[in-house]
Amino acid sequence: MTETLHPLDAAAQQSLGTAAARNLATTTKSVPQMQEITSRWLLRVLPWTQVSGGTYRVNQRRSYTVGDGRIDVDRSGSQSRVIAGDLRELAFLREFDDEETLAALANLFAEETFEAGDTLVEWGHAEDKFLVIAHGRVEQHAAGQYGEEAVVGVVADGDYFDQWGLLEEKIWDFTARAATPTTVLTLRRADFQNLLERSEPLAEHLRAFVESGAGNRDGEHPIELSAGHEGEVDLPGTFVDYQDNPREYELSVAQTVLRVHSRVADLYNQPMDQVEQQLRLTIEALRERQEHELVNNKDFGLLRNCDARQRIHTRNGAPTPDDMDELLAKVWKDPSVILAHPRAIAAFGRECSKRGIYPANVDVAGHQVPSWRGIPLLPCSKIPVSDTRSTSIMLMRTGEAQQGVIGLHQTGIPDEYQPSLSVRFMGVNEKAVISYLVSAYYSAAVLVPDALAVMENVQIGL
Fold first, then answer.
1. What is the pTM of this model?
2. What is the pLDDT of residue 43?
């Protein structure tokens, strides 16, 4: 007869299991984690200026340069059309308020298409037309001192050249070739002159513009000086003119209402304060949104407020060392920091590796970060990446004393929890839910245009 063993006899448990033991143990817990939290380098590197009145005014020397420096094109129909109001971006049409004449001028533009490699204008030929790039990328080539040809500029959507050929006879000092399939809107000098003869308001406006002077190379009202003279000469009289309507930045706000049930706050408050943890993560989300707005806001965001003369395009799509040097040339007066999407930094690293270049790291607040020419290259995930995998890279000079880019905030506000961030108790409703109003106040200002430069259309695909 065979003896049958009980299962417990076959593998008898000899000690207390971990599942049961956990019922008597105190679990070690982390504070709540959140993947949305990033390094937020932009908030860390910006010098913050106290704005006691809620508004910061940027007083500048009078300048003839306004707007974003680009001419928008309507491409919704079968043919592209220049937006008439955007023609005021041209230096000699600033503050020209005759809408009928502007509309007539916009109608004079003709659409032309070019394939990659086609020549749009050629060096040495008469500069008899004005071109607006509706879509595509165009390279400007010029001969060097010894006859070699080099790319001296790249223009793309919304850029234009050359407005002064409409007013006087000139010759092209570069050759422009399409780097991609390109659509251009062209205004012939002869057509512009015909409209000028028919429009007295336009003719009067141009006469006043010529008499006012065109300003210095930065578009500012000139300061008359004399140097290198000998003897008793008549010295020029001068004054420094200021902008009549300087730009003002009002502090923006990011807000939310945090709700916590009183039962949770009363009974489930150990070992971690529930309200404190809810508030901590809410503030982290507000700070993330703050950085996003500082980059992308249509009123004060850095990408939107970069001067058109401070924007460049990559020559071949991916960000190369040559492109980064071109960007540095735009903010050559004491550049502070480069900000790019992490994928753009990776794309730049690949281009450096192809050339056998290995940029050194630099120390920023105790962190070893990549750099280019000694300028820290910091990640910023708030810089957008398009559906076509293109993005932008920003370079800036920071600090009020350096006429750079600054952050704006106001400290000492009621119920302040962090600098320029308040947490205000709003009461308990009839459902025993406690509410707190969480508010962060901020903005950013570019004190002079050459404090910020942007490289656009940076391709990050492999």
1. 0.78
2. 96
